[in-house]
Design goal:
Number of strands: 22
Strand content: 35-45%
Order of helices and strands: HEEHHEEEEEHHEEEEHEEEEEEEEEEHE
Number of helices: 7
Helix content: 10-25%
Largest sheet: 10 strands, antiparallel
Radius of gyration: 32 Å
Shape: globular
Length: 424
């Protein structure tokens, strides 16, 4: 055996000991990591003198951010921070006038701050700009208050021309999905947005927009709108009068009418099917019979008007079928449904816009579609020719006030741009 071999044999135990030591340290650090709060991110705010790594003799301040899952409760989160049960219940009680901590939403974030391991403050944002703060006072008691981020409501105008679809082109023009759906709801008695929107149609939307810290967050009320559809012009003015609020045309007539233009509402289609699956609804009028709307199975069907269900069930070639009797002698019928809505049965009352069934292909049918009929005094008529009665118009004594609102809205729709409506 050589001298070199002897030296290697002596070094081997030292190297082995070093490896064992490093492995032990790694295992210890892993244990520390695994035992830290699993549902939170932990931020240390302990002050270090002059930025040095010297030992800190001041209080240790820590922040924990908890992102809520479906099973989390405020009690569970606080218990993970070793907050005593009675104190947790006290916090919930004191916070309730500002926000009920038992109603926290999934995927929201609650922040907790501790000093030397004792809970000092809790923060929770419960709206676009409002947040709850529960903090320990100098006497050691917890007190709750509401805070607000800087915010303002502005009036914004979005204009555009349809090249592909209303939804896609409105978003490109700067509208958000809420504004597009609101637009289709306002004109739902005059325009069939599910099947009668064409290339070259145009729109103008005046709406309130909530800005938080200078960033647009959410669309509020639509104050006015204009649509050009198939060569016809439609105007909507939002007006609040002595007898209520709503949307009116430029002459002060309510936009709400006896029957919707279509039982397939734009908002139902866009909310049920993702953009990847959405495709235009195909509509075909069959003389002396009704309209066939080709649409995906499961598309929600709305009652075109308020009324009483005359029949709901199977009806020969119509398959699953619903017939609704409305005022002024109108009756509407819906055939080939995949299923009938919950609670919809003969004799039950339904509201205009209520989902009463879903598109299907039952009965004698070559594919999923809705067969829609309208009768007046038991006589079939062309649903496209229906001129249903409007709702209550603006009272004559308020027409001067309405005219002022109308002129302001129309001026803003034409001028476009952004104006400040409310500052906070």
């Amino acid at each position: 055996m050589t001298g070199t071999q002897n030296r290697n044999e002596k070094r081997f135990p030292v190297r082995t000991a070093l490896i064992i030591s490093l492995t032990g340290i790694s295992f210890f650090l892993s244990i520390l990591f695994l035992t830290s709060p699993a549902t939170s991110q932990k931020f240390s705010e302990a002050t270090q003198a002059q930025g040095a790594l010297a030992e800190d003799t001041g209080p240790k301040i820590e922040r924990f951010d908890f992102k809520l899952t479906g099973n989390n409760t405020f009690y569970q989160i606080m218990s993970a921070l070793n907050v005593p049960g009675p104190e947790i219940l006290d916090i919930v009680k004191k916070a309730k006038p500002v926000f009920d901590l038992t109603r926290m939403k999934e995927d929201s974030v609650i922040k907790a701050f501790t000093i030397d391991g004792r809970l000092q403050k809790v923060e929770y944002k419960f709206s676009d700009y409002e947040f709850l703060v529960v903090e320990r006072d100098p006497d050691g008691n917890m007190a709750a208050k509401k805070g607000e981020l800087p915010h303002e409501i502005r009036e914004t105008v979005v204009t555009g021309t349809i090249e592909n679809s209303l939804y896609e082109d409105a978003l490109k023009a700067g509208a958000d999905p809420q504004a597009v759906v609101a637009l289709t709801d306002i004109f739902a008695w005059d325009i069939d947005f599910a099947s009668d929107i064409h290339k070259g149609d145009s729109f103008r939307i005046l709406s309130e927009m909530l800005y938080v810290d200078g960033v647009p967050v959410k669309t509020g009320r639509l104050l006015g709108a204009e649509m050009e559809n198939g060569g016809k012009s439609y105007t909507a003015i939002y007006y609040e009068g002595n007898n209520g609020k709503g949307y009116y045309d430029d002459k002060g007539r309510s936009l709400k009418k006896t029957l919707l233009k279509s039982p397939l509402r734009f908002r139902r289609i866009t909310s049920t099917f993702s953009r990847g699956r959405f495709h235009p609804v195909l509509k075909r009028y069959r003389p002396h019979h009704g309209i066939d709307y080709g649409a995906p199975t499961g598309t929600p069907i709305e009652s075109a008007g308020s009324g009483v269900v005359k029949y709901a069930g199977w009806k020969g070639g119509y398959g699953k079928y619903i017939e609704v009797k409305h005022s002024n002698g109108y009756t509407t019928a819906y055939g080939h449904l995949s299923r009938i809505g919950k609670g919809v049965r003969s004799g039950s009352k339904v509201d205009q816009g209520q989902v009463i069934g879903y598109v299907g292909s039952t009965g004698i049918s070559t594919g999923p579609h809705l067969h829609y009929e309208v009768k007046v005094n038991n006589r079939l008529i062309n649903p496209l020719s229906v001129k249903s009665l409007p709702g209550v118009s603006v009272p004559k004594k308020e027409m001067q006030q309405f005219a002022a609102v109308r002129e302001s809205v129309l001026d803003k729709l034409i001028s476009g741009g952004t104006a400040f409506a409310l500052n906070k």
